[in-house]
Specification:
Elements: H1 10-26, E1 36-42, E2 45-52, H2 55-66, E3 73-80
Length: 82
């Protein structure tokens, strides 16, 4: 008898979303160091915190996070430091 894989639990889904967002950030040079970005996902809502150099980087981070599969909403609390 073939077993059907269990559906990922909520915590596992949130962990995967966080990992996927962080991976995507790594694909965009403008979102890498020296920016300090923290990603947390709770119930498919991605929370972005940290510091970037420009408003464009802040907007890009939100845009990239919104493109990740499974994300329902992004709460962008990234600060711009001049």
């Amino acid at each position: 008898m073939r077993r059907v894989p269990a559906v990922l639990g909520r915590g596992a889904v949130d962990q995967k979303i966080t990992a996927d967002v962080e991976t995507r950030f790594g694909q965009y040079a403008q979102l890498e160091a020296p920016n300090l970005l923290n990603v947390q996902t709770i119930n498919r809502v991605v929370y972005l915190n940290g510091l970037v150099s420009t408003g464009l980087q802040r907007s890009d981070a939100e845009l990239v996070a919104n493109q990740v599969r499974g994300v329902d909403k992004v709460v962008n609390s990234i600060a711009v430091v001049h």
